[in-house]
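User: Some background: our group keeps a shared notebook of sequences we're curious about, and every so often someone picks one and asks for a predicted structure to add to the entry. Today it's my turn. The entry only has the sequence so far, pasted here. Could you supply the structure so I can complete it?
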Amino acid sequence: MVVSGSEIRRVISGAKDRLRTKSIVNEVSKRELETGGSEFVLTWSGGEVATSDDFELVTLEETADGVVAGLRNIDLGLVAEANAIRAAILPVRTTL
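Assistant: Of course. Here's the predicted structure to add to the notebook entry:
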């Protein structure tokens, strides 16, 4: 799925049941920014860490405002929603 504003275009993928940004292109300079790694990292006070790679992608839907991804980690008992919004394409806002 592509989320784009007037200056930034972001391609989001749900390959292998994981949320990934495939590319980010600055439309003004026509430069592609490097992408890689997790979409988000959660760290608990005890030092335990979970990343977006630890969450199964349940839904990936295009909306009028951008893209909404539904994520879950059954082992941790967590459900998350990540929103990539056209008006403010970076960063992804994650709600737990």
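Suggested note for the entry: The longest strand covers residues 66-73. Residues 59 and 70 are 5 Å apart (CA to CA).
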